[in-house]
Amino acid sequence: MIRTNLSTRPFYNERAVHTWLLLAAMIVAVATVFNVTRIFRYSQSDTQLAGEASRDETRSGQLRQQAAQLRSTVDPKQIDFARTEARQANELIDRRTFSWTELFNKFETTMPDEVRITSVRPLIDKQRGIVVTITVVARGFDDIKTFMERLQATGAFKALGPVEEHYDESGLLLSSLEAIYVPEAGRPAGHQGATRR
């Protein structure tokens, strides 16, 4: 085996090595420039955010101070007065939703000839709405049952049922009926108001 170099000038692959080194140096330079620009941008952003946070804290302190001043100037009597006025206004609005005429028209169209109404008492219940107690007199339970079925068929009376029943001295059946009254069929009962006089 020949161990000597037969060429007049030995060939070393220097150009490829130089090319790879130059390429690696360019990659390092680009990465360095990218990192420096990012650091500069984040530094500016951090400074800007710190300034905004400081301004926000100052503004928050001012607003807390203004709120404390406003709270000290508010008169609790004025708040109670406004609350009372609002409650009264709501009650007046609620009263407009109940019509005696509409209620008695429903009674007139559904009442059998053998049944007579002796009293009607509406009551406002916050959970159930308008609860109407109707006291009727009839010859027997079948007449009252017919009246109840006709009332329920209107869609304006829910949960209709007798509360108390007894016969009077003349042998007539006296019955107290209770129902949730919905002035317009389909309107939620909980949103009804008080009676209008």
What does this protein look like?
This protein is of the alpha+beta class. The chain folds into two domains: 14-74; 98-191, General secretion pathway protein M, EpsM (Gyrase A, domain 2). It has four helices and four strands, in the order αααββαββ. The protein has helices spanning 14-73, 76-95, 100-110, 141-153, and strands at 116-125, 129-138, 157-167, 173-181. The protein has a four-stranded antiparallel sheet, with helices on one face. A hairpin with a 5-residue loop joins β3 and β4 (173-181). Residues 185-197 have low confidence and may be disordered.
Which percent range fits the helix content? Answer: 40-55%
Compressed to H and E, one letter per element, the order equals HHHEEHEE
Question: Could you name the CATH class of the largest domain?
Answer: Alpha Beta
Q: What about the largest sheet? A: 4 strands, antiparallel
CATH fold description of the largest domain: Gyrase A, domain 2
Shape: elongated
Strands, count: 4
* Structural class by secondary-structure content: alpha+beta
Mean pLDDT: 81
CATH superfamily of the largest domain: General secretion pathway protein M, EpsM
Enumerate how many helices there are, as a single number: 4
Query: Are there runs of 5+ residues with pLDDT below 50, and where?
Result: 185-197
- CATH architectural group of the largest domain: 2-Layer Sandwich
What keywords describe this structure?
disordered C terminus, alpha+beta, four-stranded antiparallel beta sheet, 197 residues, 4 strands, 4 helices, Gyrase A, domain 2, elongated
